[in-house]
Amino acid sequence: MWSVFIGAAACYKRKMHIGIDMLINLLPIKIREIVNLLLNLFMVILNGFIFYLSYIYVQASYVKPTPVLGISSAYVSSSLLVGFGLMTFYALKFFINDLIMIIKKI
């Protein structure tokens, strides 16, 4: 699980996730920049919410031991916190960078 969620965050950081941007590429540049800004804001909110839900899940899994090792499931579930925490951070970084770029053009 750790490699999956940290790998997902690494792909998000490098913008390597698959996206279908055919319709966005048809828009004029200024509208495309605004759409990208709104999409990044949406990703901040979505990843932040999933990060919050992950926190609740890790707290609930703290008392449950893993079947083989007998350690707390929270150690395994913490990968959710790290992965979605990083994705929230990167989404916020992308949003701020896009916002600064739009403000500089005004």
UniProtKB/TrEMBL annotation:
Pfam families: DctQ. Residues 1-99 form the Tripartite ATP-independent periplasmic transporters DctQ component domain. InterPro entries: DctQ (IPR055348), TRAP_DctQ (IPR007387). The keyword Iron-sulfur does not apply. The chain crosses the membrane at residues 34-55, 75-96. It is found in: Cell inner membrane. It is a multi-pass membrane protein. The keyword Disulfide bond does not apply. Its main location: membrane. Keywords: Cell inner membrane, Cell membrane, Membrane, Transmembrane, Transmembrane helix, Transport. GO terms for cellular component: plasma membrane. Belongs to the TRAP transporter small permease family. PANTHER family: 2,3-DIKETO-L-GULONATE TRAP TRANSPORTER SMALL PERMEASE PROTEIN YIAM, SLL1102 PROTEIN. This is Tripartite ATP-independent transporter, DctQ component. It comes from Anaerobranca californiensis DSM 14826. The lineage of its organism: Bacteria, Bacillati, Bacillota, Clostridia, Eubacteriales.
